[in-house]
């Protein structure tokens, strides 16, 4: 029987099946005590809340999902045991972080492209604003961030595929690229000036959309804990 609530579930308003993580026992030497179940959306006791009104990413609907006395059969257990499904899910979560990092790079590239195009066309005092050194400096910072992020995503993806690193590299890529995308989007609005604050220009939307990237699939703070903790533990194992 499953009881509990989970917030901000992507596609919850349209889903017909939920992948549910539920604690089945206290954590012990055998594992975390968290199992993974497949639960139909129309199962008795499952209730999906109203669609969330978010700052951005309106194309990805989210909502709360409540479980009240939801009974599931043994066949709903993913992996056939309590710990197998959880470990597999954690591995998939790390892969998702590489994906989010790539999304961040793509969004940052669009913000950079919009910034360069605007700087080349918009004028101030009869000159393109792109001729001003401070505007060029902001564009340079954008370009540097995008290039570094793209290289990091490719490196992390290669390490994931080879199996060399499926923990620290994905977290490092997500941390750097999502923070970078936020900075690049902020610079894009700054380059556009007041125009960048208007709903009709792409950089306004990008600014709102990329903010979420630092929150889901593990916040930036969680990524720092994974990276720092992982490196320290690896060093301790060598002594």
TrEMBL record:
CDD domains with a match to the protein in the record: ACAD
Needed cofactors: FAD
Gene3D superfamilies: Butyryl-CoA Dehydrogenase, subunit A, domain 2 (2.40.110.10), Butyryl-CoA Dehydrogenase, subunit A, domain 3 (1.20.140.10)
Keyword tags: FAD, Flavoprotein, Oxidoreductase
Location of the Acyl-CoA oxidase/dehydrogenase middle domain: 1-70
InterPro entries: Acyl-CoA_DH_CS, Acyl-CoA_Oxase/DH_mid-dom, Acyl-CoA_Oxase/DH_mid-dom_sf, AcylCo_DH-like_C, AcylCo_DH/oxidase_C, AcylCoA_DH/oxidase_NM_dom_sf
Record domain Acyl-CoA dehydrogenase/oxidase C-terminal: where: 85-229
Molecular function terms, GO-annotated: acyl-CoA dehydrogenase activity
Cited Pfam families: Acyl-CoA_dh_1 (PF00441), Acyl-CoA_dh_M (PF02770)
UniProt record similarity statement: Belongs to the acyl-CoA dehydrogenase family.
Descriptive protein name: Acyl-CoA dehydrogenase
Source species of the chain: Mycolicibacterium conceptionense
């Amino acid at each position: 029987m499953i009881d509990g609530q989970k917030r901000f579930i992507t596609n919850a308003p349209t889903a017909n099946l939920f992948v549910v993580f539920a604690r089945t026992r206290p954590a012990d030497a055998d594992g975390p005590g968290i199992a993974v179940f497949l639960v139909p959306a129309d199962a008795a006791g499952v209730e999906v809340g109203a669609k969330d009104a978010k700052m951005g990413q309106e194309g990805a609907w989210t909502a709360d999902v409540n479980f009240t006395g939801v009974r599931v059969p043994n066949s709903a257990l993913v992996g056939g045991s309590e710990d197998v499904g959880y470990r597999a899910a954690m591995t998939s979560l790390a892969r998702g972080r590489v994906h989010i990092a790539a999304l961040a790079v793509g969004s940052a590239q669009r913000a950079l492209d919009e910034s360069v195009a605007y700087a080349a066309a918009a004028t101030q005092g009869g000159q393109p604003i792109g001729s001003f050194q401070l505007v060029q400096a902001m564009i340079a910072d954008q370009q540097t961030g995008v290039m570094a992020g793209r290289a990091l995503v490719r490196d992390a993806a290669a390490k994931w595929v080879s199996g060399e690193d499926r923990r620290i590299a994905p977290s490092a890529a997500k941390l750097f690229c999502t923070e970078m995308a936020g900075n690049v989007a902020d610079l894009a609005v700054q380059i556009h000036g007041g125009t960048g604050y208007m709903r009709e220009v792409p950089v306004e939307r990008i600014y709102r959309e990329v903010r979420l990237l630092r929150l889901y699939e593990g916040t930036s703070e969680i990524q720092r804990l994974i990276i720092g903790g992982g490196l320290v533990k690896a060093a301790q194992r060598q002594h």
